[in-house]
Amino acid sequence: MASSQSTMVGAGNPVLKWLLRLLVVGYLFLLVAWPSGYIVRRTFEDGTQSFLDALSDPDVTHALKLSVTVALVAVLINLVFGVGMSLLLVRFEFPGKRVLSALIDLPMAISPIVVGLALILVYNGRYGWFGPTLEDAGLQVVFAKPGMIMATAFVALPLVIREVVPVLEDMGDEQEQAANSLGANAWQTFWRITLPGIKWAVVYGVVLSLARSLGEFGAVKVVAGNVSGETTTAPVLVQQKYQNFEQGTAYAVAFVLVAVAVVALIVVALLRPSEHKTARARVGAGKEPS
Amino acid sequence: MSIDVSGVTKRFGDFVALDDVTVSLPTGQLTALLGPSGGGKSTLLRIIAGLDGADTGTVTIEGREATNLPARKRNVGFVFQHYAVFKHMTVAKNVAFGLEIRNRPKQEIQRRVEELLELVHLSQFRDRMPSQLSGGQRQRMALARALAVEPTVLLLDEPFGALDAKVRKELRDWLRRLHDEVHTTTIFVTHDQEEALEVADEIVVINDGRVEQIGSPDELYDKPANDFVMRFLGETTDLAGQTVRPHDIEVAMQPGGLGATAGTVTRILRVGFEVRVTVTTEAGDDVLVSMTRTLARSLGVEEGAKVWLTAAKGATTVPVMAAV
Which of B82, B88, B102 sits opposite A196 (nearest CB)? Predict the structure, then answer.
């Protein structure tokens, strides 16, 4: 420990240490805290009543409800597929595994707008690849909820997987093999051994994707179109209201989005230390000689 | 015969882990699979357990064809080198796992868990989490967990390999006593010849994916099938084209013995009561001889002395394999 501390940047130099702290805090303040704080200030500029009025606007309640529905469904889908794909990536060997692993990061890399456009190209009711067939079967994807859910799920896909994969790798498969030799089938092994082992990673991933899904703007805006407010989610509404000079409403909705994100981060922060502690206890115990 | 492995071959890519292995392991005994690391012994154990599949060959457990049976249906207890404890369960829950999977009545499970914890001396730790146990305790818990389902065979993969020397020795004695109590057919993998010789009823020596010899510890020690087995079971040296143990070489200070090898003492190392003498023969080979301090003094062995070496009468010797 002592040796690793002495090699740390700025160790033993209080001036440098404070300078670095100031730099980081200043950076975060200018980039994150101040602008976010301004939203809060603007929201409550005219007292809480205008905030409550804004929230009782039917457009607003509809948009918030829609956002929550889309986000919840997308997170549920990502939960199931995310855990499944993580298991596939960690526990199985197959050709093309590295390609799949790289593909999973794709949503992080490409612009959400492009995701929306791509979905329109494929599922569009008039000339898309699947669109006409699905529309004949009575399922409208683009400019409706299914498309918005797909876009959201696409964008938030890596969040669960990137949380779960390292924990699964770290856990190894010996516990699962032991369960197998004790008579557990694949399903029992998953529920009793694997899932409890990755529980916190899954929760963490879900909270992150929930926050991401609620705030998704670009992909959803492209896919949702604007069917007379029917497909307007909260972030899209913020933009519309702001451009229509209804800044009060825009700030109120923006505040709700910020509040949800902050709560999500607090939840994560509360979960994290407990996970950290058990991980440390595990490492410590593993080092015991006997 | 309890476990019959017949013609089993296993490859990992180009590497042949097991090459047409056929071996029968007796019921109710404690058998050691002994060999150097990477020799295939763990692979054989995992194939018996069903954790790995063989490329060719068959496995029969107590007369039941098990080659294509998944691990969970073989009713084997498996103990891993690194314990594989269920980290999120208490000690009692760990031990109860196999019984709960089998949907046994609650009371029976509780009774059996108490019994087993008693057996492995962990009763007072029943509500602890595995992270609060020492390595030796964790391995005993893993053993109780494997025994809970009353397995047909108990398989242990280097069970004491991750423990320090003292705990290792304790657990080794304890395993022997436990086996004398429960009589479950037990197979354990080890690369430690002392562990195998001390604990096992029967030893299977495996090297390079092949079975070198099967026999009791005495048989292996007294009649090794080849120089590999002999070298693996303890210290050896080469004398006149034979592999022989250093303490089985007789030293004469005068010529005369039939077929004696002449040489010069080049180095003497004293370790407690034992003296290790290095003799360089006229052909230039080094031969290691060990004897008691008393004998060395009475013979007058010292550096530079001329000596004549013969293998003692009745000593175990094996021809040295021609170097390829």
Answer: B88
